[in-house]
């Protein structure tokens, strides 16, 4: 496995060196025009829950946002069975 990683890195280095060797780069000047962006109201909700019997991993998250207000919580269940929950609210 280690030898495969070394070979892949060597190939990447060789290709990178070849592509840059002897080439001059020309960068065209960029002109940026910044306009303030206007977005409509923001609204979303999502959640997920993980319950993996094989590893014992149990956790999840729920979040909802409406305009500038976001609230949610995430949780996990420790190996000893204790559920830890963090709730948050951002305005």
From TrEMBL:
One Pfam entry name: Chitin_bind_4
GO terms of molecular function: structural constituent of cuticle
Keywords: Cuticle, Signal
Stretches with biased composition (Basic and acidic residues): 51-69
Species assigned in the record: Anopheles sinensis
UniProt protein name: AGAP010108-PA-like protein
Gene Ontology CC entries for this record: extracellular matrix; extracellular space
InterPro entries the record matches: Insect_cuticle (IPR000618), Insect_Cuticle_Struc_Prot (IPR051217)
Alphabetical list of PROSITE patterns matching this protein: CHIT_BIND_RR_2
Segment forming the signal sequence: 1-17
Location of region: Disordered: 51-70
PANTHER family, per the entry: CUTICULAR PROTEIN 30B-RELATED (PTHR12236:SF46), STRUCTURAL CONTITUENT OF CUTICLE (PTHR12236)
């Amino acid at each position: 496995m280690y030898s495969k990683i070394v070979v892949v890195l060597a190939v990447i280095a060789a290709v990178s060196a070849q592509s840059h060797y002897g080439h001059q780069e020309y960068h065209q000047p960029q002109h940026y025009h910044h306009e303030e962006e206007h977005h409509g109201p923001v609204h979303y909700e999502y959640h997920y829950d993980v319950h993996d019997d094989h590893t014992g991993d149990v956790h999840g998250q729920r979040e909802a946002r409406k305009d500038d207000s976001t609230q949610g919580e995430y949780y996990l269940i420790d190996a000893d069975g204790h559920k830890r929950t963090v709730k948050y609210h951002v305005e």
